[in-house]
Design brief:
The chain is mostly helical and 156 residues long. It is 83% helix and 0% strand. The chain contains four helices and no strands. It has helices at residues 2-44, 48-78, 86-115, 120-144. Helix 1 (2-44) runs antiparallel to helix 4 (120-144) and helix 2 packs antiparallel against helix 3 (86-115). It starts with a helix and ends in a 12-residue tail after the last helix. Residues 1-21 form the signal peptide. Keywords: Signal. This is Sensor of ECF-type sigma factor.
Amino acid sequence: MKKSAIIISLICFIFSLNVKAQDEHHKGKEKIKAAKVGLITNRLNLTEEQAKGFWPVYNEFDTKRWEIRKNIRQITAESRNTTSSEDKILSDLKEILNLKQKDVDLEKEYMSKFLKVINVRQVSELYKTEQLFNAMLFNRLNKKDGKDEKMKMERP
C-alpha cells in the first residue's frame, strides 16, 4: 500500500513538473511573439489603419512559414540518422529543396498581399526587421545558454 502511494505521488509530481514546463514554454513563446510584434510595429511605423490590415495577413504568413520551416527542421533532424539508405537521404534532400521552394513561393505570394496594406518601404523594413529580430533572439539565446557568440562550427 505504501509503495502504491509513493508511486502515485511520484507520478503526480512528475506530471506537475511536465505541466509547469509546458506552461513556462508557452509563456516564453508568447513573450517572444510580443517582442516581435512590438519591434515590427515600431520599425514599420504602422498607422492604425495599416495595422488593422497588416496583422491578420502577417499572422497568416508567419503561421504558414513556421509550418514549412518546422517540416524542414524535422526532415533535417531525421536525416542525421547514419543508418539511412542513400535513397532515403536523396529523397530527404529533394523534399527539403521542395519545402525551401514553397517558402520562397510563400514570400512572393505574401509580398503582394503586404503591398495591399503597407507601402514598399514598409515591406522592405519588415524583412530587415525580421532578420534583426532573429539575430537578436539568436544572440540572446546563445548568451542565456552561456555559449560564446563566436562558436566554432562543429560537425555532428
